[in-house]
Amino acid sequence: MSQSIYLLVANHAQDAIKSCKLSDLASRSIAIDASCCVSSFHRSFKTQNGTTLASPGGQPIAHLVGLYLAVIRLVTHKIRPVFVFDVHHVSGATVKARQRSAMKAEHEEMSMQLLEALGMPVIRADGDAASLCAHLAHEGITQDAAVDDLTVLCFGGKLLCNLMDPAARGLPIQEIDPSLACSGLGITFHQLAHLCSVLDSHRFHELGPTRALAMIKEQQQQQQVNEVQPYHQIDTPPPIPILCHSLHWRAPIVDNVLNIMMYEAQFKEDRVRRDCRVIAEAVNDA
Fold it and tell me: What global pTM score does this model have?
């Protein structure tokens, strides 16, 4: 569904999409959907035989390696990342689903511990992480939001695509301006929220993005549109945690980073210490 939104914007509001390089984002603070990152790292970081990257004990470590390298990459380009996680509740209709849910919660908890040890701000969203990222950008608490879910365009913050997903490495980073997107599409933010809801609904899935846009603009079948439940209550901004109003980036707590990256991810001590010095210098210079 995010792809449908992107194609609509690319076809009808080309001015809303701007390609940029990592160096163009220097001095910006960026809210990052970290829960999505954890999942993408597990999909992308594999061994040579295609298995999930794991410790000698068999524990998955792709999320730790991915976030660790991402922090170094971002701060050395003078970017100030803010990592936002979903509030994760273990759930599922089957035992296997509950086990997957519990494992995801465990991975995210360890990820938060690593990021905090690295000196990065970590936020637990009261709801959807991508929505909070976009809301933080709209409110000026950060300059941008790096998310995969483009339905949060209607919150008004500028979104960055291809920043964190390893599968997009080599592709240009794309910044999407929601105001220009709405202008090019000829709709309001409120109509954009309805458009996202329509495209996400199974009842309207067969419409396709072009027909859904036309339906919104023409105000046809208004009764059906109003019956669609907002996607993650998409037209209601999520609450901003108090912590977000006093974000700080600091030097890593080296011993804590060593405990995770040496004993969990099997990184060599001298490399971790060297990386921590690089992060500390970058944070002090930002």
Answer: 0.89
